[in-house]
Design goal:
It contains 5 helices and 6 strands; from the N terminus they run αββαββαβαβα. By secondary structure, the protein is α+β, with helices and mostly antiparallel strands.
Length: 218
């Protein structure tokens, strides 16, 4: 009489073998002489340039009686929360036609209040501070940041946490408003790597998180 445990073990073994046979083949061994990732030169990476942009020149009629009356905008943008505050996404077809990089005028926008009016002459004197659990709290202007630190340019994709919430709301109503599928944009961003600033401020061992606060009064 055969041992039931043995039969069960043999059956389990056959299942494992059958699953293994369904797996894709093992990739060939790598060439020892082939270049590794550490040999790659990041300077050789080609990033596609953005589409020719058309900077909006006129304030739209629906914005003229709002606190955003100083902001020209692209009329193609789809408003998701009425006239104000300005929460929009581009038509999905227009976003698709943009390709990898999104033109600034078609970037999705998530606002909780009015857009501040900025004067270009004041921008170099803008300040930000790094404080809290650091050994060397620091305050620096934008002009100092540009002059004293290395600038890098990276393609960055931003996506709203509520992207495609419209579909979710059709199944079960959530607290957020109904974003379509175009609450996502990609652009080339230039600036200083945050790690350079954090290292200079020398976080204490108890520091675990970075909390960012803006100057907006909402």
């Amino acid at each position: 009489m055969e041992d039931p445990l043995s039969l069960q073990h043999d059956k389990h073994s056959r299942i494992i073998v059958e699953k293994h046979q369904q797996l894709p083949p093992t990739p060939p061994s790598s060439d020892d002489n082939a270049s590794t990732s550490s040999d790659c030169q990041t300077d050789d990476v080609e990033i596609p340039l953005p589409q020719p942009t058309k900077v909006p020149a006129q304030v739209l009629d629906q914005d003229k009686k709002t606190p955003d009356a100083h902001v020209p905008r692209d009329p193609r943008l789809i408003r998701l929360t009425g006239v104000h505050p300005f929460n929009v996404e581009p038509p999905l077809s227009a976003l698709f036609n943009e390709g990898f990089l999104t033109s600034p005028e078609l970037f999705y926008v998530r606002n909780h209040g009015a857009v501040p009016e900025v004067h270009e002459k004041d921008i170099p004197d803008w300040e930000f501070s790094i404080e809290g659990l650091v050994e060397r709290p620091m305050t620096i202007t934008l002009a100092q940041l540009i002059a004293n630190y290395e600038q890098i340019t990276c393609p960055v994709t931003l996506v709203c946490a509520g992207n495609r919430r419209k579909e979710q709301n059709q199944v079960r109503k959530s607290k957020g408003f109904s974003w379509g599928a175009a609450g996502v944009s990609t652009a080339l961003f230039t600036g200083v790597a945050m790690v350079d600033l954090i290292r200079k401020a020398r976080p204490r061992r108890r520091a675990k998180f970075v909390c960012m606060e803006g100057a907006d009064k909402l």
